[in-house]
């Protein structure tokens, strides 16, 4: 627990770090930050996509899935610079409305909006008209639909049995009915937020798989109609500069008779469409395919179109392989990230958090410190409102960098303190423009001109840049630290070294569980590992000890004493600290007395019968002790039971499941406290996790009395903050303690127009006291592009960061709103984001198409994971304390942590002896094999799932037993066996734990075991036990929402 001393500060705040001035501090190739991109498009640097930047697609890939045509092609934007495309070849005459837009996923269905039919669909869907194309496809796949939930037979009125031929002119077509049939029933797992219902008996329903050009669907089984392989694509030069063929237009060439009108009518040929390509099958390419049995054919010689189909043996549903795969996106990003990520290019999106990469700081903060939701910010508030894409940054100011990256340099500007703008107080950074030969500089945030102090003066080179630019971190790097002067200190006094106070519950419950003896034993060795700046030197942090039940016991551990002394405070309603001298001590000076105390505490309270505890007075005592010592610090409170003794802060049991989902739910949603949480501590099974978390919490780097301020360039401002902190005003985020794991999410809003030329700037400055007692400013700078076209915004977003923001926004929302309202708000915002893209950036096409931006194609699956979380959709076994703990935990998570929390990593343990990490599989029970062993990581837990049919040899190598029945499911660590598989598996588990800020306890799950229910809770692509929709169902629902908005 951190203690806030409400430090008054100078108006602006920032941060510094380890000492600067290493020899050979490089001359990086530093790109000008104000030049922007050549128009009109920036290079595409969105998060992992299946497209390789800089290479125009050769065409589109398409495949049919049980009557659904899936087409992937570049989206249209309003401007286009053909760039490297050879435009000298003959071009067809296209209407000049659209240019090839940013990459996207597009899924076509000519049926009435995502329904499951009671009969097998034709390959192309009845009456489906093939779209024209300016290019042949690169690939074509056919996939077998899978069984799904059952449906009743269609009512007779659900579809006309005979439909007249189409004669509607272009532009007058309707591709889907404006309202759903009355017989539809909403899916129970996710309440629709619109009037358009989810499932309609008797209407064909499909999810539309967005796909990418490199995505290959599964090959068809023998019973499928044959797959057609079109010829090679034409050379790149023939790519038209404007609109690529629309999938709702019919290609020229021989076709079957026109299909009937109505919802499934065939679109006519668009004027000016390119001619001369061969006819396409299934709305894609190649020869027309014959229909499947059971349907009247929409093609020649198939008369009975529209006749009711016989009931099939099994219901069919879309193969989940056909919809965007998180694993594919993650693996594609890893494959394309081969070079270090350099931060010198403005508005460049970094690799995904799931990719290992090196960062070279060239003027913007590393993505390990700052990640943005959008690296192309809309120029106007209207554009931001229209898109509904949240504009936010997730900032982790004290993040620890990998060994191959240089930590921020520490800069000392002397007694005058850091150089800053006179008006807005922004700190010196690479964006400042030096003028008048270097005697003044113009602030890039507020445009104010400030004199350069004589000691900081330096001449400019021929480009207008200071000649010492690359010798000064604050002029060439995105992140660095300043040494703060006494003006930045509380009461203008250099701070005292911080203190750690350990407050231990010694009630009957704590002693009986074994916790008291575990803590005292561990602290004896742990006190040698208090945080320090220099590993060679002793820590300056002082320590103090308190035990408590209904009363508090303070201990004098002064080095001159032979034995520790106990002082008891029984008046808990008026808490005070009974001693000053001897309470907070240096560990090395008082080691013998401290060790004597830690040996005696378990013995002193071994026979206690006191069951009641206090809590509020314990916190008060720690605060008073730090106040009396005039220092900052951290409280470690080890508490085991509800504080029901009569005292300030008394709590009562608030577990009332009947309130969940009602307006009174918010009364029980507020957390009573925060920190590590064990719902029922068991010394045997929880000791390892508890001690590892305690060690990390005591040892990790931390800043005290921190104040953070985020400054922005004219046009935007920081308006909202998410995390664990205190705010006295609208700008300063106060953090009693800020450690290396804590992230703060900041939301931005427009207050003026932004300029595409200058972009948007952000500077995060954190003033804090280091663990050595030094006052510092850490500075992180970030520049992003600005755009006036929505297509550019959607080209450069980061879905993982958007999900981090949306989850924190929603989890805070449950404190004041019913959970259902919060869930509906999330679904609606996601639908608006995708509908805006569909309406403004994608090529014109049937409303039956689900079109997703390339960099946001995983937004639906990740959002569904947030909606199914224990905070927003708790199961019957989730306590209020569990929910409050998770809400508090996620409020401080960075992007990597929220990613694995919402979409866990599921690793099949195959070919371990090869040394390479196996490729993960998707979070679905369908991906589990009875003969396999799988490791599932959630960021908080590690599950080892063992199939019932695993080979004896593998069981022997991992568990030391050949029998599935003999595996001990209560084990929390694997046996150490001398074979490559055992060794490699333990290495993988250790590496997973090293990547996370919390120790993940290993839970063994045998197939068909009771623990499998908990394991399946994290298979987030499946329907959840608490009623959450499967990924496939949610994608259907999201498409409904988008169509509702578009209509």
Automatic annotation (TrEMBL):
Gene3D superfamilies xref list: beta-sandwich domain of Sec23/24, Sec23/Sec24 helical domain, Severin, von Willebrand factor, type A domain, Zn-finger domain of Sec23/24
Q: Where is the composition biased (Polar residues)?
A: 202-216
Q: Where is the composition biased (Low complexity)?
A: 16-32, 136-161, 168-178, 185-196, 262-276
Q: Which residues cross the membrane?
A: none
GO terms classed as biological process: COPII-coated vesicle cargo loading; intracellular protein transport
Residues covered by the Sec23/Sec24 helical domain:
799-898
Protein's name in the database: SEC24 homolog C, COPII coat complex component
What organism is recorded for this protein?
A: Oryzias sinensis (Chinese medaka)
